[in-house]
Amino acid sequence: MFGDLFEEDFSFISNNQSGKGKKSKHRDTEPPGPREFTSLSGIKNQGGTCYLNSLLQTLLFTPEFREALFSLGPEELGTLDDISKPDAKVRIIPLQLQRLFAQLLLLDQQAASTTDLTESFGWNSNEEMRQHDVQELNRILFSALETSLVGTSGHDIINQLYHGIVVNQIVCKECKNVSERQEDFLDLTVAVKGVAGLEEALWNMYVEEEYFENDNLYRCGACDKLVEASKSAKLRKLPPFLTISLLRFNFDFEKCERYKETSCYTFPIQINLRPFCEQTELDDSEYMYELFSVIIHKGGCYGGHYHVYIRDVDELGNWQLQEEEGNMVEDKVLRDTENAKEVENPLAVLKGILSEEESKQMPVDQLGQKLLEKKGMSWNKKYRKQYGALRKYLQNHPQIFQFSPDENKVGLKEKYHKLPFKSDSQGQVLQSPPQKNDVQWNLEKTSATLRDSSAGCHWFDLNDSKVQPIKEKDIEKQFQGKESAYMLFYRKSQLKRPPEARGNPRYRIPEHLLNEMNAANAELQKKRVECDSANNGIDLHLHLSSCYKFHNGALHPSLTWKESIVDLTIDRRKTLGDLRQSVFQMLESWEGDMILSIAKPLPAGLHIYHSLDGDELTLDGIGLADGADIFVWNGKEVGGTKVLTGLDHEPVILNVLRLAEYNEGGKGQHFTESQHIIPCSTELGALRRALAPSGGIVLKNGSGLGKDAKNWEVLPEEDMKETVKSVGLTDGCSILILDSHDQSLVNVSNGNLTAFTYDISWLQVKNFCRTDAEEKQVKITATIETVMADIKMKAIQELQLEEELANDSCLRPVSGNGKLLSPVPEDYTVKEAELKMGSLLGLCHGKSPTSTQLFLYFIVGSDQHTSPEMEIVVEETASVRECLNLMLEKSGLSGDNWHLRRLDWCYEAGEALSQENATLKELNVCRGDTLVVTEGKLPPKGFLKIPIWWYKPLNRMEHQENARDQVNGVTCKMEALQVSPAGECVQTDMDLCYAGSIEISGEASLEDLKIQAMTLPCCQEQIVPLPAFLRAWTVESKRPGKLLRNNKQQLNEYKLGARVEICIEPLQKEENLGPHELLLRVQMGIPGQRDYYHSTDLVWDISKECTAWALRQRVASHCCLPVDKIEIAKYFPEKFEWLLISSWTQQISKKKRKKKQESLQSAPYHLRDGDIIGVKNLLLDDTKDFSTVRDDIGKEKQRQLALEKKKSRQAERLQNHIFSEEKVNIKHRKPEVALSINVGVFR
Questions:
Q1: Where are the beta strands (DSSP E) in 965-1036?
Q2: What phi and psi, each to the nearest 5 degrees, are found at residue 1075?
Q3: Smaller CB count within 10 Å for the chain: N or C?
């Protein structure tokens, strides 16, 4: 819902920057970073908890609240160590809040975590990712604290600090009787829309009076008649801390949507509440309040981000603006610029211009001209795009602007003309509150103008993990816009802090928390030292010259690589001299000079590049990276052989190809391959003389082996003086050597191959002919034009098999799961066989089919798991009947009661091959297809072969006996459940008995089907007088599905499909359901038990309406109960869940306003024939839990199946190394969920 507005600040990651070659470590292993220059700690955002973080910081910087919480010791709250003890009374929420406050004050980390606190709230990960309203949290948190502190000395903390009283009074104009009502408050909610600022809002609430007069009169209790009266409200009791919530979110009834009010709303740093109080005779200090916290919301009404501006009352932080030090941060400049644009509100500008007008009104055109002179830009250029035309904007604010009768002039309303306006440099109008009832305002104290920052007035912006100092005047930027003030926190000016609390974060913190924080800081410091060492430590691999020998242009270990390397870990901040000294200490037997050189393992071997010089330089300074290879030698020779070093002498591995002397099949070319290690400084002429002493042509392929032959390029004679490196030959490149007798294959003029243009690659062939021996595998060089017969002969030779096998063997591709696919015709080329280079082929017994033959798989029966898959080769011109006979003969079956079907994509018997005289080629049967030999003759054309099931619901006693075997209250007998082929749990509330199958014409009626079903042996045991005493259903997922109505309707009209199954249900009386009648199964709950009586059928006419209320009435009538004394729910057997059917009117969209209520046949109920309706008799059973013990078992079984599926999918992904691509995150608006905090009972 909130997108990426909640950016988690991963402050637990160390600030140390990983150097070059730094090994990656998991972030969780690093300790959290220390506090930044402000010395204040932020709070980590758990995903959507910025609203919680802002409120917690406000409470932390309320010293009186913090110290009152700290005053409660373990003897009252208990200890966190006793949580697991069953009899211990642990007040976990205040304990976790104490611990969090101590961490924020004393723990040396950039940001604290609220995970423990939110767990004490009972929140899960979903709650932590969901944002809520901070005002709602404020009230719920205070309520949770009050409940948690019941029975302790701190039970009244919230009331002492935040409780106030408002008194509402109504005064009768005739008898002067005063009727009053008190209201308690912990916070005040004030309007924003149509109000200029906080003081005006308070004036409207607690000074303005509402009059009852004319048609709106008040009934006076004393006069006992309707009289004129006045209504007002006053603040009777002021709390030490005043919390004010601004109503920024409103609802637009025309658009039917919520919106955020972003207009300008001023509030003062200091405010005098005397005009709003009932008692005004006290000293001014009793009414003076100072702002100390502003919670700010950025975003819209459906999402956003909270942060908070807080005044550091105790001066615990280091307040020092970076711009004052000359280090202005670029992003702050951009933010200030953006905020300055938002602050410029046209409403404030226009009020400022009109307030200066002596005539009180001016023409609208002149107002636009004045705006141009004042701002240097016209209304149309500056504001029209966002606010519309000037005249329309003035008309949209009738509470502020007043037009003349001819609407040519405009001015401010009377109450705004009495207010002195002052406009600042940003166009922001600052005003004093209205003066009424002869109340004298102290403009110096209550002016909305904010003081300049000074000593003792330190403000900070606490934005989750980030804390930075701000100036007091920055609060002005939060008066309006998408990022604006949402909650204000004031404290009484007379509340003074003791001198010992100033700058002392340890003040009044209990001893046990001080000890815990000291231990935590010591542990943090220890981890940071270890992490710093680990982050700056680099692992070097020392290669000792005594363990190496030089041959083929590279260094190779005398023993193994592992035995030739010595690992050394050293701090990257140490010098090269320190490294040399460490190596000397490790190698005590070293004699002579020691040269340390950078080396690198290459495919050809180890190569030395350059020596390290400058013992005074740090290892990081000389670019020594983690995992670097250092060769330790004398700088001249290794094993008596001089070693060439440097980039110019790198050894490269080249693949050298030559034409093979023997080429089978005559198509394409075959090659022999060998590898050679050559220094990259070798001249091509020397290379040719070494590889082709008798002369020849050299061709290169820079793309490596196995690429298209068109990439081959002849190296001309003039390039023979070039080096291997200069012509671009690197590791893995291929060169082709053509001797003098092969030069006819090359057109020297353009340097391209002319005789062949095919891929030079290979195929793998595995021996499947001998099951007693090991299955050997060889690589056969081939091109896309190589004939399969040649590949087979070459494979037989390299596998050293008998040549006679060539007449009784074939090549079969092997699939990824190891299955042998259909053989490839021997006269096909690799290209015609559609084989990819590198594919695996199996050499198997049996002749391969010709190009006119088909290789087919077949199984007998519909279950391929119980029937083995067999193979057969048939002519593509063979008929279906001939193919069927061959398959029956091979499987040892006989008779005419068989037919063929294709295998569908679900690996089940699918479409039947009904045209028995058609050829396989005409029916598009392809090589490798799988056919199913199915028992039974095919029905004639136009006929349906339908399996018939006999359906009989279980009675309640049988149901109870099958399902009730309870141990410790949990049913363990699983026979009441079965698992469908799809892996779903199916509740067996019915008995389905297979009766047999019938063949019936599609033009026959439903009545004919019932009559024919009555002739089946299973059905003859039942006494059924007429077809009208039978009910027909389709079978879906092992249970009745669609109810078939109208006995006279043809079967074709039902669109049953070729694989439909029908179940027949016997009835006690005739039935002929109409199209608007719904058949439901009603089950009455057994009082006091989680079970139901035997279900009864209920026919409900839905022609008039199909609503919840109508169903309740019908069910109540059916059960002979009052409609208000039942509860009903629909059962979803596939989920083992009950959905309560309530009779409340659902919300109706605009398109459906003509419909009074949603139909139960639509979401979420989807009511249809055969649905089970559970009924609770509230006269005997007031529980609304419709679930049964069978449902609990079913859900548990589903959960176990889901876990097994998940594990199998994970194992499959791990085995095949398949990693799915990351999906693009689509921002969806999350559903709104009520906020709650779970609290234990301590009364």
A1: 966-967, 970-971, 977-979, 985-987, 990-1001, 1030-1036
A2: -70, -20
A3: C
Whole-angstrom Cα distance, residue 115 to residue 128?
9
Quickly list DSSP for 43-82.
E---SS-HHHHHHHHHHHT-HHHHHHHHT--HHHH--GGG
Buried/exposed 158-183: b ≥16 CB within 10 Å, e otherwise: beebbbbebbebbbbbeeeeeeeeee
Tens of pLDDT along 854-896?
889 899 886 666 678 888 999 989 999 899 999 998 888 888 8
Q: What angle is formed at CA 883 by the lines to CA 881 and CA 889, rounded to 5 degrees?
A: 100
Q: Are 635 and 597 in contact (CB under 8 A)?
A: yes
SS3 call for 92? helix
Q: What angle (nearest 5°) sits at the alpha carbon of residue 890, between those of residues 887 and 893?
A: 80
Indicate if 50 belongs to the active site: yes
Count the alpha carbons within 13 Å of 599 in the hemisphere toward its beta carbon.
28
- In this structure, of 275-284, 485-494, 908-917, 948-957, the range with the lowest mean pLDDT score is 948-957
Write the CA distances from 196 to 199, 266, 413, 697, integer angstroms: 8, 7, 13, 92
Q: Is 1211:1203 a contact under the CB 8 Å cutoff?
A: no
Handedness of CA 863, 868, 869, 873 (dihedral sign): negative
Q: Find how far residue 158's CA is from the centre of its chain.
A: 39
Helices (H) and strands (E) in the chain, counts: 27, 62
Residue with tokens 């140390």: 16
The string of DSSP codes covering 167-222 is EEEEEETTT--EEEEEEEESSEEEE-TT--BHHHHHHHHHT--EEE-TTS-EEETT
- In this prediction, residue 71 carries a pLDDT of 95
**DSSP letters for 1204-1238:** HHHHHHHHHHHHHT--PPPPPPP--PPPP------
Token duo for residue 533 = 């060492």
User: Among 624, 293, 699, 658, which Cα is nearest to 462's?
Assistant: 293
| Residue 1225, number of CB atoms within 10 A of its CB | 8
Backbone dihedral region for residue 292 (phi beyond 0: left; psi -120 to 50: alpha; all else: beta):
alpha
- State the average pLDDT over residues 1192-1215: 86
Residue 47, both tokens: 């995903």
Tell me the C-alpha distance between 870 and 892, whole Å: 12
The CA–CA distances, whole Å, from 1238 to 98, 127, 147, 357, 741 equal: 18, 13, 10, 59, 92
Q: Which residue has the tokens 């009374």?
A: 89
Q: Per-residue b/e over 810-844, b at no fewer than 16 CB within 10 Å?
A: bbbbbeeeeeeebbbbbebbbeebebeeeebbbbb
Helices 92-106 and 134-148: angle between axes, nearest 10 degrees: 120
Radius of gyration over alpha carbons of the chain, in Å?
A: 45
Report the DSSP beta bridge partners of residue 658: 672, 737
| Catalytic residue selected from 305, 458, 899, 959 | 305
695 in helix, strand or coil?
A: coil
Token representation of residue 293: 């916290």
Q: With helix as H, strand as E and coil as C, how does 375-405 read? A: HCCCHHHHCHHHHCCHHHHHHCCCCCEEECC
Q: What percent of the chain has pLDDT over 70?
A: 80
The pair of three-digit structure tokens given for residue 324, joined into one six-digit string: 């004052």
The answer for residues whose C-beta is within 8 angstroms of residue 1236's C-beta and 6 or more apart is 122, 140
Q: What b/e readout covers 3-13, taking b as 16+ CB neighbours within 10 angstroms?
A: eebbeebebbe
pLDDT of residue 593: 81
What pLDDT, in 10s, does the model give residues 569-596? 999 888 988 998 888 888 877 777 889 9
pLDDT at 123 over 80: yes
pLDDT tier, 438 (very low <50, low <70, confident <90, very high otherwise): very low
Torsion (CA) 204, 205, 209, 211 in degrees, nearest 10:
100
| Length of the chain (residues) | 1243
Give the whole-angstrom CA distance, residue 134 versus residue 54: 8
Told to judge if 926 belongs to the known catalytic residues of this protein, a careful annotator would answer no
